[in-house]
Amino acid sequence: MSDIIASLDGLASMCHEYPSDPHNTELYGRIVSMCSELAYQYLRTDYYIPPTVGRMVYRKYGDGGNIHINRTVQEICSKGRSMDAIVSRQRVKDVRLNNFAFVIDRSDVITAKGMSRKIGTNIGISNNPEILEKIAAISILESIKKTADVIDVLTYGNDVKGPFNEQQYTYREMLLDVGKGANRLDLALARLLQLQWDRRPGVKHLIILTSGMPETGRMDLLDDIEVQESVLQYLNHMQKRGVRILYLPVIVDETFANKRVGSHSPRSFAQKIARIGIPTAELGDLQTLPDILRDGFKQMLSCRMHVALFE
Description:
This protein is α/β, with parallel strands linked by helices and 311 residues long. It has helices at residues 2-6, 8-17, 25-42, 73-79, 112-119, 129-144, 171-176, 185-194, 221-240, 254-257, 266-275, 289-302; strands at residues 53-60, 87-94, 98-105, 150-156, 160-164, 203-210, 243-249. It contains 12 helices and 7 strands. The strands form 2 sheets. The chain has a 5-stranded mixed β-sheet. It is globular, with a radius of gyration of 24 Å.
């Protein structure tokens, strides 16, 4: 694992270099390979593979095969000596459909230029929130695609794009994507609710990778507060529907962490989300990224939820 930590600075440099040379397949392959290795060592699939549930079921006789007669008192009383009352026991397993929704912030503040405008100082490659976000996003997708049945990826700035599957929104597009616009996380969550994603059968995981604060971008206090409260209401609703949520704020500067927009700063908003029972893991620098991602996933999966099952 120390080799991965030692190579993170090189990985950040490659991610920074790739947009200027997007046809360099060797560079692209090295980026994906290193993110995949990070996912394998720190985000192992056995951390969050949903287990199957074994149980006994009673099946009625279906005019074929061997008959194992296990009559129940209720069936004898209601049906008497009819063939409908003949039942057999069989051990089955409920398989939980594994749904992942990955919401990725592509607003202006996720970029080095946008962050620099917010705090008034230059942001270097080593603590560029956009580079940190892209490494985290590719690593997470490399991990969850091995166990997820369905993956929906949404990106958002002023507008929401998606949901896409992993073939429609490729790593290449992710590396070339440039953040712009305001942080409208409320619209991304509203899109999922409109699609009734939270009502899907099986296990549902929602991962939010973001920077800054949900806001309108118009510097209107009341509107910004409304957007932030909408995000909290949507998350609370999804949690009640059995969705396991992980909130990953990218906060690379302490001045920015406490810069208030609307009724919250980025750090206080993350703390507010944590108080309603949603795991949060703050991404602050490259060297701690693997451990924070791993701990965040473990927190998310330790939350016990009631989920719908099917055979």
